[in-house]
Amino acid sequence: MSTSQFSYSSARLRRVEYLQFGVFSPDEVRQMSVTKQIKVNDRIIPDGITRPETFINGQPVIGGIGDPRMGTCDFRARCKTCDCTYSGSGAKVNDCPGHFGHIELARPMFHVGFIKICKQILSCICFHCSKVLVDERDHRFRAAMRQKNGQRRLKMVYEICKNKGMCEYGDESNMEKVQEGWNLGLQGGITNEQAPKDVGHGGCGGRLPKYRQVGISLQVEFPETMEDIPGSGDKKQNLPADKVLSIFKNITDADCIALGFNPRWARPDWLILTLIPVPPPHVRPSVAIDGAARGEDDLTHNLASIVKANLALLNCVKKGEPSHIISQFEQLLQFNLSTFVNNEQPGLPQAQQKSGKPLKTMRQRLRGKEGRIRGNLMGKRVDFSARTVITADPNLAIDQVGVPRSIAMNLTVPERVTPFNMVLMHQLISRGPLEHPGAKYIIREDGNRIDLRYIKSKSELALKCGWIVERHLRDDDYVLFNRQPSLHKMSIMAHRVKVLDWSTFRLNISVTTPYNADFDGDEMNLHVPQSMTARAEAQELMSVHKNIITPQRNAPVMGIVQDSLLGVQKFTKRNIFVEKDLVMNMLMWVYTWDGKVPTPAILLPDKSQAGQYRPIWTGKQIMSTILPNINFIGYCSTHESDQNKKDCDLPFRRKMSPRDTHVIIQNGELLAGIIDKKTIGPGAGGRSHNT
């Protein structure tokens, strides 16, 4: 339990209205980065990370992947940016949160997560003038503009534009001018001087190529009628990322909106990588091995490969190497960038360690049951919890849970020492951690913890008011009980503890319905609240008694089930009579019984003794002893509707039923009717719902 205190802030609290996702622009990445150009020992360290080394002689390299300005994973070191330390847990206020760096790429590269979207955008805009291929004259485009969801809008525009063969210039009256001007401009387009102004669509009239994604690259196929083909002149050629970037940069803000983008939060040219953010060492901590050597994280190995390939490509460009050599290093850099995001791409080899084990990169850390989302954020491992198999115990109340004694002696509840509980706390401490109910720890006012396992004379310990005693879990403590999957609010409720022997959680059968639990090996989780606020919320908001009615359909979510339900149904039949000895036995089990035996329904002549009578009671009379003082009128499951009765107008039909299916409870006494699932089961209109 964290004891950190945050400093007071006079900032006005605002209500969070919505959450906006976006893509970092290159300028935002540079502003966020801490690896900016600095001067160290008369040597200028360039902007970004330019060295693949992490440590040299045990010291982090400035400008390297383990740059100390991004933070540190060493408990003895301090961050060069915020001058904070590292505790490993992040619980302290002065912990360094870590800071991002960045790597400036020698050439623009595709982002493997956005390459499919880049292909869709290219199919929607002109290859030459970057204008969207349709406008408001098309009714389908107008329908797409009414779509508020950006992804759906892009998909609708893509379906309209994917079969376009040229960038329309204007109306049909201008098509002859377009045909004449196809071969006048570079790459098959029309120059601005020859184009009429503000007519029709307003495009350049150029022929459009077809695009195809091949692995982590894009291929472009130019039409046969196109004379001036850019690049190598081939009809089919690879489309480099720098060409795509130049096309995307010419897209106007209005066209960005038409393509489903919000220019404030994301633009198409931001989907092309010109630099990459480098996560801080907290995300990829290194481990010291045998003092000098260090074991680096998989992300660090991948980042080192990116820096090496980037430096090699930069040197090739500076030296003026042939284009095929530069292309090979571009492919290597593109491969390392792709595996940094996703190392499980079909048709692409995996980046591996020296041992041959595939690297665990960004996507593998986020996705799946063991990933960051499901494994660390939605499904944390917590303290003060227990898990074991559940078994049935009909002797427990519905708001009780049977806890094994071994678990009760291991889990603790912090209780502050006051003058009112001083004697009780002394008794718990004297028993120690090995006898239940006892205590395990004492926490002083200064935060020091006393472990009672190592204190021999526990009875001589002097307690002070304000100290905290971490005592064993005991009867009637409130705990949270949960069964996964937690699909609705009633999947976790507060129960009162009943410490029992053996090694399983015990549960009343009636409360299994909201948990969707059965006793064929199911396991459930128990959590112990650690503060007075949490205990009060558990008792007042999450108690079983206060969650019987589900807000989903305003009906009881739990009731009598299985053997108990069958017994009640048989017990309340009209022809069931109970002898005196059995009546006395059953009444002794009713903890709310006031000691008064109801008047017998019948005095039956005793055949063995002339003139003697033996009293017998009906099942309805015995059932009335456990009913609260309520009034209820209902029907059992076998009741016929009034529509099927010819004599339903008779007054006695509305009160009595020949088959005893009309349930009448008056002042807590069952007068008529059979109690079954419709009356006391989990469903709307029953006794528990009306009560």
Automatic annotation (TrEMBL):
**Main location (coarse class):** nucleus
Class in the EC hierarchy, top level:
transferase
Q: Which UniProt keywords apply?
A: DNA-binding, DNA-directed RNA polymerase, Magnesium, Metal-binding, Nucleotidyltransferase, Phosphoprotein, Repeat, Transcription, Transferase, Zinc
Provide the protein's localization.
Answer: Nucleus
Keyword Repeat present in the record's keywords: the answer is yes
Q: Which GO terms describe its biological process?
A: DNA-templated transcription
One annotated Gene Ontology cellular component of this protein: RNA polymerase II, core complex
User: What EC number(s) does this enzyme carry?
Assistant: 2.7.7.6
Q: Which reaction does it catalyse?
A: RNA(n) + a ribonucleoside 5'-triphosphate = RNA(n+1) + diphosphate
Q: Where is the RNA polymerase N-terminal domain?
A: 269-572
Q: Which molecular-function annotations from GO does this UniProt entry contain?
A: DNA binding; DNA-directed RNA polymerase activity; metal ion binding
Which SUPFAM superfamilies does the annotation name?
A: beta and beta-prime subunits of DNA dependent RNA-polymerase
Q: What does this protein do?
A: DNA-dependent RNA polymerase catalyzes the transcription of DNA into RNA using the four ribonucleoside triphosphates as substrates.
- Homology family: Belongs to the RNA polymerase beta' chain family.
**Subunit comment:** Component of the RNA polymerase II (Pol II) complex consisting of 12 subunits.
Protein name in UniProt? DNA-directed RNA polymerase subunit
| Origin species | Aphanomyces astaci (Crayfish plague agent)
